[in-house]
Amino acid sequence: MTPRVPRSPLADDALGRLVRVYPGGGDPHRAAPSGARCRGWCSTGLPRPTEADCAAVALRCWELAEREYHYFAVDYLRRHVRVCSSGFLPVARHLVATASWWDTVDHLAVHVVGPLVAADDELAAVMDEWIEDDDLWIARTALLHQLAYKDRTDPDRLFAYCLRRGTHPDFFIRKAIGWSLREYAKTDPGSVRAFVSAERERLSPLSVREALKNL
Known about the structure:
The structure is a single chain. The protein contains twelve helices and no strands. The protein starts with 8 loop residues before the first helix and ends with a helix. It has two domains: 1-84, no CATH class; 114-215, Leucine-rich Repeat Variant (Alpha Horseshoe). The protein is 65% helix and 0% strand. Helix 3 (51-62) packs antiparallel against helix 4 and helix 4 (67-80) packs parallel to helix 6 (102-119). It has helices at 9-21, 28-41, 51-62, 67-80, 89-97, 102-119, 124-130, 136-144, 155-164, 171-185, 189-199, 205-211.
């Protein structure tokens, strides 16, 4: 079910600016300079958003076909995720599961879903559901949501997730397993090395290679 788009004068203003900056949003030669302008100009003078404003900006951007609008929404959420509560997670899920590709999903996983879960312990149970999801992008988000946690990482949950999807055939899941382990190895290399050594047969060669790349 698509979340309802809240009424938001702030979103009206932001989207009005966006469509002027991105009149040729699908042109890859214009994407980089337009994106650089937009990150500054499209937010200048706007008030601090509420959670409803964040939802409205993101959902309305996602209704537009050009990826530049999606990039703006992800960047906007990343900068304002602290105003969002656990109630924002269904919006984040919709963004992850719609027009999905790694370029938006990974930033949503690490910089939006991750902070939401870190701020509300009860959302960890939702991640336990997401890792089982048939949508590979939802499962990838569960694998990556702790990527920036460092010493706040729950290693038991991380390792359990890696084993749960260890035999998944898709590249993006196998890569995410290796990436999440490699990142945690910067904090606790011994536990990652021991985990991979013990469970190597339950992980893909790609996941193992990525996990041990810096060890």
